[in-house]
Amino acid sequence: MGGVRAPDPLLPITGRNGSVRRGKNGARHMKIASFNINGIKARGPALVRWLESAQPDLAVLQEIKSTDDTFPRALIEDLGYNLETHGQKGFNGVAIVSKLPLEDVTRGLPGDDSDPQARWIEATVSTEQGALRVVGLYLPNGNPVELEGDGTPVAGGKYAYKLAWMARMEARLRELLALEMPLAVMGDYNIIPQTEDAARPDAWRDDALFRLPSRKAYRRILNLGFTEAFRARTQGGGHYSFWDYQAGAFERNDGIRIDHILLNAYAADLLQDCRIDSDVRAGEKPSDHVPIWAELAL
DNA sequence: ATGGTTGGCATCCAA
């Protein structure tokens, strides 16, 4: 009898106010989200539909596949959102949309000035209750995996680029963590963290999204002190954020969970909820990804 | 084992 029982680390956490929602008890919460839209030119209607129904206060977008000057800004701004883009022609490209002003915007992942790929954007938003630094990222896919005979990635190959990019990411995150303020790092990580994050893990075993070196690099980043918001709220398998367009993958729920929201300790203390909007995939002309969102007491 | 789908841009590459 008696003795102190350690809390079960797998129990979903609840906010300090229990399960307070937006607007209740005078608490103002911020809804932040990430959505790989797979091309703004093709996704305008679906993106607008989701922004209008989900009403995120801030969302990071990936694969806008557009330059900054060809992005259809009015789509976003007409809904009352501010917009900052970091685009390139044809591929990649990230953006932040926000109802609050976006301050101290930076573009590009530091660490390699010769890297032309647009995959990283940062901004700060402030409420009466405090400020939040936000990173929007599109982590390299890394396929095909090309290895030397000894198993090291072929220099100049896509897999080597992925691992080098993650090392640069880790270095930048160390700098951001030193700011000692709430930080949310979210986007398309192109990483399947665990076996339960794929419907058919065996099919991904040697893929750049799941092979051990990729997951180790992701663990290294998590172990800097981040909380993975979705896993802090929901355990078990069957929750995915991406389904291939081919072979009816969505209908069979043959998906993977690769879009993530990582929170530093200051932000994790504010976490109220985190969900994946899988219904979005059932809409007209959907992206192959769906949005993930978190609610913060901020 | 193969082909299956989508987006952007150019007649193929990335996913």
From TrEMBL:
Cofactor binding annotation: Probably binds two magnesium or manganese ions per subunit.
Site residues by UniProt (Interaction with DNA substrate): 289
Gene3D superfamilies: Endonuclease/exonuclease/phosphatase
Ranges for domain Endonuclease/exonuclease/phosphatase: 33-289
Pfam family of the protein (one): Exo_endo_phos
CDD domains attached to this UniProt entry: ExoIII-like_AP-endo
Residues given in the record as Mg(2+) binding sites: 36, 63, 188, 190, 288-289
Active site (record annotation): 138, 188 (proton donor/acceptor), 289 (proton acceptor)
Molecular function GO labels: double-stranded DNA 3'-5' DNA exonuclease activity; metal ion binding
GO biological process: DNA repair
Residues at the site labelled Transition state stabilizer: 190
Co-factor(s): Mg(2+); Mn(2+)
Family from the record: Belongs to the DNA repair enzymes AP/ExoA family.
NCBIfam families documented for this protein: exoDNase_III (TIGR00195), xth (TIGR00633)
Protein name: Exodeoxyribonuclease III
Species this protein is from: Roseinatronobacter monicus
